[in-house]
Write a structure and sequence with these properties.
The structure holds two protein chains of two kinds.
Chain A (H helix, E strand, L loop, with lengths): L11 H19 L3 H19 L5 H7 L5 H31 L7 H22 L1
Helix pairs in contact in A: 1-2, 4-5
Chain B lengths: L4 H8 L7 H10 L4 H4 L10
Classes of the chains: A mainly alpha, B mainly alpha.
């Protein structure tokens, strides 16, 4: 049994950030808001550069990928769970708000349903996998 | 050791419990046993 290495390239997150910025640019440009697209791309390139050139901080290296180890993977998992719980709470609150104002709850109802089904499927799969 | 300096520090200060593979790797590194390195009665990591 070996302690697992979880390092990945330091270019992963900056690359993902730029790719996301380009996707936003294309979508916003297609939607007739090129200036917003350029702004989004600039923000995400800035974030990518911050992560790439962020030095040796453990947080930066962990987010970037080249400083990941099992402890950071656990931090990442817990942080993801917290973010997910906050998002679920907001989706439920938004559903209630929309219904209370006579609307059908879209798109929050669909988001909540997808989240709930995904959670149940994930629990089933993880239990099956052991 | 495939972990950061901060993780070693977190283990030493009992803010993080290592996985079994890491505990075994640490014990091997110190040429010791897991019980000796992570002794409940003596919380310091032995060098």
């Amino acid at each position: 049994m070996e302690a697992t290495t979880m390092f990945r390239s330091k270019w992963f997150l900056p690359g993902f950030s730029v790719a996301l910025g380009l996707a936003f640019l294309v979508a916003l440009w297609a939607g007739g808001k090129p200036a917003d697209g350029v702004f989004s791309l600039a923000v995400l390139i800035g974030f990518g550069l911050l992560i790439l050139l962020g030095g040796r901080s453990e947080t930066i290296r962990g987010l970037r990928g080249d400083g990941r180890d099992e402890r950071f993977a656990r931090l990442d998992l817990v942080a993801t769970a917290i973010a997910g719980n906050v998002l679920i709470a907001i989706v439920i609150g938004a559903c209630i708000w929309e219904w209370a104002h006579g609307r059908d709850g879209s798109p929050f109802v669909q988001l909540g349903a997808i989240t709930g089904v995904t959670y149940v499927l994930a629990v089933g799969f993880l239990r099956w996998r052991g | 050791m495939a972990v950061s300096r901060q993780t070693i520090n977190a283990i030493e200060t009992e803010r993080y419990t290592p996985s079994l593979p890491l505990a075994l790797a640490l014990a091997r590194y110190f040429n010791s046993t897991v019980e000796e390195v992570f002794d409940g009665g003596n919380d310091d990591v032995q060098e």
